[in-house]
Hints:
Mean pLDDT: 95
Structural class: alpha/beta
Helix content: 40-55%
Strand content: 5-15%
Radius of gyration: 17 Å
Bound molecules: zinc ion
CATH topology: TIM Barrel
Low-confidence stretches: none
Number of domains: 1
CATH architecture: Alpha-Beta Barrel
Largest sheet: 8 strands, parallel
CATH superfamily: Metal-dependent hydrolases
Shape: globular
Number of helices: 9
Amino acid sequence: MIDTHAHIDDEQYQDDLDAFIRSQQAQGVEHIIVPGVDANNIEAVWNVCQRYPDFLSPAIGLHPENIRDDWQSQLETLHRALCIVHRQPRHYCAIGEIGLDYHFDTTYKEQQKEALRQQLSWAVEYDLPAILHVRDATEDALTILNEYTHSPRLRGVMHCWSGSEEVARQIIDMGLYLGIGGIIAFKNCKLREHLSSIPLERLLLETDAPYMAPVPHRGERNESAWIRYVMEELSQVYHVPVDEIERITSANAQSLFFPL
Ligand SMILES: [Zn+2]
């Protein structure tokens, strides 16, 4: 199993980090992608990944919810870190998480769009996939993403996917993946119906840990091993054995984040 989105730099993991990592590995987790959210957690993300370099891979980006008046200087700091690290043999595996989020606050709508465009340009320039966070901003996000789907083509994943089948189609038609997490196991979740016609070859597994713990662990600190609940749901939706779900989604993650 590959967890394509978990914030292992979060302070909730630091007290028992070694034991936590060992327990994830013992439960069959093969790899975890650790996204960045702003200039303040560059070091924490990098350091935790360097402790387990074969198991954790870092990403770098400015999360739309962290866009404030200082967004331009944040982007400069992030870009500097990206340039330095990119020359090293082990470098960032993605730009993210980046995107648009109008859910709680639309004050910085225009700045969010501009920051997204800049960071998508880095993704294309450095040939890295983008980890996209989009909430209540689908139309604007699709408009911007469309600007980057020509050559060289943007690669990436729409993280924490829960949208309609129609929008899912538009996203996969752009060549992007959909990141499926614990939401699929929530009661009354329409995602199961919306997904059934989307090919498994376009799906990735993720937790968004420490948040979004799936049923039956709602409210607890989430962990990567619990993507097995997501695999069980997908197994029912697609009428495919869990092993096969694991094989296909791991191959998808491999080809997006670590292409040969
Ligand atoms: Zn996240």
